[in-house]
Every structure is written in C-alpha cells, then in structure tokens.
Amino acid sequence: MEVSNTLGIGFLESVYHKALLVEFDKVNIEYDSQLKLEVTYKGVNVGEFQADVLVEKKVILELKVAKSITNEMQAQLINYLKASGIKIGYVINFGNTKLEWKRIIL
C-alpha cells in the first residue's frame, strides 16, 4: 500500500518493483528478487521462469501494471506456484488508481 500511495499510477513495473524492495529492506523482510526457478517435466528440466519477488521463501509476488488483473495473470502465477512448490502467491497490480491484488492458494 505504501508504494502505491506514494508513487501513484503511471510508472513502469520495474519502478514499483524496486520501490517495494526498498520497503521490504526498511522493515527487514527477507526476499529474493527476480529469482530464477526451474520447470521440470517428468524429472527433466524443460525451462525456467523468473518470479518477480519471493518473500520469506514462502510467498511469490507477481507484479503488474495493467488496467486490471486478468485470468492470464492469475494463470501465470498458478503455474509459478505449481512449478516452485510454493503454496501462496499474489498478483499485485499497480496500474489502477487503487492498488489491486489477488491472492492465490494452491
């Protein structure tokens, strides 16, 4: 909320991403940024994806700047959760006049 309230709308995703990390640092929240995770198929590495932010090794944040959160954005996060084995994630959209988020639990 602090990032959204301070910056407002109109910036690139990377700006919100960096600002969010500043806030995490201020309150000592552990995170990994742009973390590369492998996708395996029947035990074989078939690709990788890059999670925007992994918080406390427990929650994936997928950051967006769009008019609204779409089904495709949610599907992307679901795939990240499945591939990583992590159970909780949020799509966070900074592109609206009011911060928008969707929690997904596997």
Characterization of this structure:
The chain is an alpha+beta fold and 106 residues long. It has a single domain (2-105), classed as Alpha-Beta Complex (Lambda Exonuclease, Chain A). Helix content is 32%, strand content 39%. The chain is built from three helices and five strands; from the N terminus they run ααβββαββ. The chain has helices at 2-7, 13-26, 71-84, and strands spanning 31-41, 44-55, 59-64, 88-93, 100-105. The protein has a five-stranded mixed β-sheet, with helices on both faces. A hairpin with a 3-residue loop joins strand 2 (44-55) and strand 3 (59-64). It is globular and about 45 Å long.
Structural topology:
Blueprint: H1 2-7, H2 13-26, E1 31-41, E2 44-55, E3 59-64, H3 71-84, E4 88-93, E5 100-105
Parallel strand pairs: 3-4
Antiparallel strand pairs: 1-2, 2-3, 4-5
The Rg value, from CA coordinates, equals: 14 Å
- β-strand percent reads 35-45%
Residue windows where pLDDT falls under 50 for at least 5 positions: none
Strand order of the largest sheet: 1-2-3-4-5
The succession of helices and strands, N to C, reads: HHEEEHEE
* Quantity of strands, as a count: 5
Distance between the termini: 24 Å
Q: Quote the CATH topology.
A: Lambda Exonuclease, Chain A
Q: According to CATH, what is the class?
A: Alpha Beta
Kindly report the average pLDDT value. Answer: 95
Q: How would you sum up the major sheet?
A: 5 strands, mixed
* Count of discrete structural domains: 1
DSSP summary: helix tally: 3
| Shape category | globular
The CATH architecture designation is Alpha-Beta Complex
Structural classification: alpha+beta
Helical content stands at: 25-40%
